[in-house]
Design goal:
With 631 residues, the chain is α+β, with helices and mostly antiparallel strands. The protein is built from nine helices and 25 strands.
């Protein structure tokens, strides 16, 4: 046991004092740091205006896009600094040089600073000078095509047009792609620019070194641990003895990704090995490697959202994508909301019977309540085949059997003596074309669908007898700005045959809502009963005439839209006084605006639509809340 001497005891008593002093010093330093930051914020200058003089070739907003001092949004100004201004001036000058103005000069001539408001107004003077014109374009070294043909591939570099240095790389790539499509995957393409003495004319010369064509020897799979080799190799669009071409590689990689089995897929070939593995001439065949990285085949997903009509809704799915190592998929999903509860089990067998088609099997059971329209339970089975057409097309053909139990419907309440509830036993076929650049928020491309269904297998006494056809086309584009324009058209028609005279309520078309006519509430457009309940129809047309989508601030964006359309019923004498025959002069119109919020779970959309041609019994408009874009 050790005794504490008085001197040590005094030191121990002073420790809390030193700790308090150190803590006070840290607090004071932090407060001083905050005051310094606040003072810097007070002294910060912001850009109020940027103007250009002498800029005749480009619009001012195009030049502002080259600057970091330009306002990032209408709600936020850019902070000013001299270093940023110098960099922006250099960026604009570089932009002019790349556009062919080789003698252009850019300099700030007026920087006015408002010390009271701490705002800066900048004026930048531009002397564009003459633009260099392309006087000649030559392509040498391509043995498979003439120089004139190869020169036509340089769409950005045209004789008599301006010299666009920024687009020369695109032309070089276009020439390489042509060589690679001919099998010269190791081709080298270079270019040189020869200017005239006054720099007003330029000769552009492309030189091609083709090398040897790549001949396919042995094909191997690498990186697949749980997927069998033949699952990856059957997606190859080439075989031993073929000349390997760029299009074959692109299509093969696309097919590998579409299996849903791989995070990464690539085609590589050895530079100096023959199929036997020894160093030899490339003409004897290269070893081509299908390199993949496998996904996690087990999946479990939960999601939720809100819809104005359905209310809160949720979805869950569990699945496994690689049964027996052959890429067979099995999955089970469930949906629940105030309007629908559904459970579904499905199996997909790719390359069924050794053919490039999928065998699709699914069974589901759902309870569905469409408010004042109908309520019932539906047990459904589907069997069919599907496959791809090229890189953007799909086809399908399927059989559907649906066991229908209607507890209530608008038809039974009004026409109980003439409406019989039957099952649906049908076959259908369809085509899909999708060239959109993004599934959830596209800015370019089109999406087209076509579907034809015939029901009545087994006879009219037991199955509904009808024919139904639907098609749709939607697309979007930009004009080189953040503004995205989107438009869509959807139409369909159905008719009964045989012993049936009335379309089943669950098979009719309805319109109005968050994706169709946004001036109506969900399913409220078209024929109605005397009490105002929608009856649906056997023909519809929906025109999302135009929707302009634009950014507002960060994750917030807006939209303006115009919709048109209606639903018609050719069985007017049967389904009541409000049903009408098809009349394109009877289109309904709505317009409005909306806000989109991009969240980690997806895009939340708020749309307010107003009816332009409001009639008796119609609402003034409708407010819709949904997930994702309207179309």
């Amino acid at each position: 046991m050790h005794a504490i001497v008085p001197q040590q005891e005094n030191m121990l008593m002073k420790i809390p004092f030193f700790v308090c002093v150190l803590a006070a010093f840290c607090v004071a330093a932090r407060a001083a740091q905050r005051r310094h930051a606040d003072s810097l914020a007070v002294r910060q200058w912001y850009v109020q205006r940027i103007a250009f003089t002498g800029a005749g070739a480009f619009r001012q907003w195009t030049l502002r896009r080259q600057m970091s001092l330009a306002a990032p949004s209408i709600f936020k100004r850019a902070a000013y600094s001299r270093s940023k201004l110098r960099k922006d001036v250099a960026s604009i000058q570089y932009f002019y040089r790349r556009q062919g103005f080789l003698k252009a000069t850019v300099e700030p001539v007026d920087v006015r600073m408002d010390s009271l408001r701490r705002r800066v107004a900048i004026t930048i003077a531009i002397a564009e000078g003459p633009r260099t014109i392309v006087s000649a374009v030559t392509v040498r070294g391509a043995s498979a095509h003439t120089s004139e043909y190869m020169a036509q591939l340089t769409r950005s570099t045209r004789i008599g047009g301006p010299l666009r240095i920024d687009l020369l790389e695109e032309d070089r790539r276009a020439i390489y792609n042509r060589c690679a499509d001919d099998g010269f995957l190791e081709a080298q393409v270079d270019y040189a620019i020869v200017l005239s003495g006054d720099s007003l004319a330029a000769q552009v010369a492309f030189t091609v070194s083709e090398g040897e064509p790549v001949l396919v020897g042995r094909i191997t799979a690498e990186g697949n641990r749980n997927v069998r080799d033949r699952v990856a190799l059957r997606e190859c669009m080439f075989e031993a003895g073929d000349t390997l071409r760029r299009k074959q590689i692109r299509t093969t990689v696309d097919r590998l990704y579409r299996t849903g089995l791989f995070n990464l897929a690539a085609i590589r070939f050895d530079a100096d090995s023959a199929a036997g593995g020894d160093s030899a001439s490339p003409s004897e065949g290269r070893i081509v490697r299908v390199v993949v990285e496998e996904k996690d085949f087990f999946s479990f997903e939960l999601g939720g959202g809100f819809h104005t009509y359905e209310g809160l809704r949720g979805k869950g799915e569990i699945g496994y994508a690689n049964l027996f190592g052959l890429g067979h998929k099995v999955w089970m999903s469930g949906n629940v909301s105030l309007m629908i509860r559904k459970t579904e089990l499905g199996v997909t067998v790719p390359w069924f019977a050794g053919l490039p088609v999928n065998l699709d099997l699914a069974a589901s059971y759902r309870w569905q309540k469409e408010r004042d329209i109908y309520e019932g339970t539906f047990g459904e089975t589907k069997e069919g085949f599907s496959g791809r057409i090229g890189m953007m097309g799909q086809y399908y053909a399927r059989h559907r059997f649906e066991d229908v139990t209607l507890r209530r419907s608008v038809d039974q309440e009004r026409l109980s003596d003439t409406v019989a509830v039957k099952n649906t036993n049908s076959i259908s076929a369809g085509l899909i074309f999708d060239s959109r650049n993004d599934l959830f928020e596209p800015s370019s491309g089109v999406y087209a669908t076509l579907d034809l269904e015939v029901s009545g297998l087994g006879g009219g006494g037991r199955a509904n007898q009808f024919v139904k056809a639907q098609c749709g086309l939607r697309g979007c584009f930009t004009l080189g700005t953040p503004l995205v324009f989107a438009s869509a058209v959807r139409l369909g028609a159905a008719d009964t045959y045989g012993a049936d005279s009335i379309m089943p309520i669950q098979e009719r078309f309805f319109s109005g809502g968050s994706t169709t006519l946004r001036g109506f509430w969900e399913k409220e457009a078209g024929p109605r009963t005397a009490e105002g309940s929608p009856t649906g129809g056997n023909a519809f047309l929906t025109l999302n005439v135009l929707e302009a989508r634009f950014p507002i601030y960060r994750a917030l964006s807006g939209a303006l839209f115009l919709d048109a359309g209606n639903v018609w019923n050719a069985n007017a004498a049967t389904l009541g006084k409000t049903a009408r025959s098809i009349d394109l002069n009877d289109l309904r119109y709505s317009a409005g605006a909306g806000v989109r919020v991009k969240l980690p779970i997806g895009i939340v959309r708020f749309d307010a639509g107003l009816l332009i041609d409001r009639r008796a019994g119609d609402p003034i408009g409708a407010l819709h809340v949904d997930m994702g874009q309207a179309f």
